[in-house]
Amino acid sequence: MRMMTKTVRAGLLMSACGVSLLAATAPGAYATGMPQLDFANPLVTGQVMWGAVIFLVFYLVLSRAMLPRVSRVLEDRAHRISGDLEVARAAKHDADRAVAELQQARKDAMAEAQANLQAALDEERQAAEKQMHDINARLDMEIADAEARVAAEKARALGALREIAHDTTQALVQRLTGLAPDAQLVAQKVEGASARRAV
């Protein structure tokens, strides 16, 4: 409002300066053929006076009726723009905070997922180690059992072999010598030969 009032006042002052300049230079202008600047003519003076009155009325109507409305519209627009800017700043602040919260939630989710993955891997590794331990224990038992059976079978086979060797030796000695050998002596010799072969 003040700016427009100052502008209108400056325009009025410039118009008054222009009219005074015209009045000062009017005799020279009239002399060169410009009758509209002959201020000695009452018609020209009346036109200038009515022009000044119309300009003054126009100025008063503008300054009292139109300029306040324009000023109110401009002030309302400035308030609306500043309010919109405040809303935009608040929305930007909220958006920045939401982005920061989203990034933090993403980091937390990644950390939690990593922790869960590590826990699952540790659990699976422990389960695999336990299963491997159980398998190894079962295999050790089966190997020990197989070795015991092999040893028993070997002992049984050796026992059977001793009997066969004892019977064969008795039969050979009897056939070669024609005499029945002493069973205890044959058993000692077979045991001695078995012991040497076992070593």
Automatic annotation (TrEMBL):
Record-linked Pfam families: ATP-synt_B
Signal peptide from the UniProt entry: 1-31
Chain segments annotated as transmembrane: 47-67
Cellular component, GO annotation: endomembrane system; plasma membrane; proton-transporting ATP synthase complex
Keyword hit for Ion transport: yes
InterPro entries linked: ATP_synth_b/b'su_bac/chlpt, ATP_synthase_B_chain
Origin superkingdom: Bacteria
Function statement: F(1)F(0) ATP synthase produces ATP from ADP in the presence of a proton or sodium gradient. F-type ATPases consist of two structural domains, F(1) containing the extramembraneous catalytic core and F(0) containing the membrane proton channel, linked together by a central stalk and a peripheral stalk. During catalysis, ATP synthesis in the catalytic domain of F(1) is coupled via a rotary mechanism of the central stalk subunits to proton translocation. Component of the F(0) channel, it forms part of the peripheral stalk, linking F(1) to F(0). The b'-subunit is a diverged and duplicated form of b found in plants and photosynthetic bacteria.
Name assigned to this protein: ATP synthase subunit b
The organism of origin for this protein: Acetobacter peroxydans
